[in-house]
Amino acid sequence: MTDTATMAGLDPATLTDVLRLAGSTGFDRIQDQIRRTGGCSDPVHLQGATVTRDRATGHVLHAYDTDNEPGGRLRIACGNRRASRCPSCAWTYAGDTYHLIRAGLVGDPAKGTPHTVRDHPRVFATLTAPSFGPVHNRPGNRPCRCATRHDEDAPELGTPLDPDMYDYAGAVLWNNHASDLWRYFTIYLRREIARRVGLTQKEAHAQSRVAFGKVAEYQKRGAVHFHAVIRFDGPDGPDSTPPAWATLELLTEAIQAAAARVAVDVGPVGDQPARTLRWGTQLDVQAIGAFGHGEEITEQAVASYVAKYATKAAETTGTVDRRIGNKEALVLLDVPEHPSRLISACLDLHALYPDRKLRDWAHMLGFRGHFSTKSRRYSTTLGALRQTRADYRAQQQREALGLPDPDVPEATTLTLAHWTYAGHGHTPGESWLAANIRRDIELNRETAREELLNDDWGGHDDD
Description:
alpha+beta, six-stranded mixed sheet, four-stranded antiparallel sheet, globular, RepSA_streptomyces, Replication initiator protein RepSA
């Protein structure tokens, strides 16, 4: 903790607070609280108490009160999904998303999907935005239109060749309506499926279901696109076998036709012309392989890819991860030119389209939808996964304290609790400590992962 080498480079205020923290009587408990949050960057502070009593006698079996905690507060993880806000909680969110998507691909009875779902036709589809003007890119082995071969991490990638000719208004309006485009796509997809098999929509619905799980991702140019796992199920969802006509080829063709049909009209307002918003032409639909036998993408790859982007948002384009109230803030925050122009377009268009709340979502470049969504029967829910984790931790705590399970029918205990919000965040010294704890946890995970891979490799050598 007080190793001079690890504290090198700290600013005076942080160093002073670290030394204060290390010398405080409650340091060990503060460190324990931060470790229990996984090194959360912005923990929520609670004040309150909980008491567990024997129902029959009223005898107190266990009592806890934050009055005995340092500062009279208990810290819990913030739960923010954004890696830019809290890497620790984002890691947990990505793990939950991975298990949610994977359960819909390989099956997991504990998460509501049977293993037979692996035999259902399913694809990984990517729906993109149209062009709003030429941008710097890396077209294969050819140079960009600017005659330069850009490196993979070149800062100009995704920025317009001519910013003054780029349709910034169209770009942010498209982002703003992207969720509507997706909703219409799912409607047209079911219609296209029914049309191709010569059934009414009601008849097709009685024989099959379409399930999906999707995530939004920002391209370098600041346009949102969607990655989606789309799956055929039987009439009773994942527990039933799809009909013989529900083939992989049919699903692929229906997706392509549905995407081409979608159109959202935006009427003319002020100096803005009427627009018809559509998906871009770069639609990609690939079959998902169960075991990687020649398929380009596998279940593992898809689940990992979706989980990776579930914790990222518009800040990957150079914007910020919180709301911006005016254009002056763009200069203070040193936002690069391209995302700055996109944000400015949102602020300018807000008065013309007040119902679209473009000012509120300017930092998201106009996008106002959920980053990860799924159909009801695709697999489990994020809420269910969080509840399972909370139940497991509560069980561990009860076992450590020797308390019975209050949920069993013969339970004889009663737990009463009262909590109030008391703030959030860290002092400078606590932030430094949390970052180090988070780093140690990440190092331990990597070490454990490498040991597991080495064990697997060693097993192959023995075969």
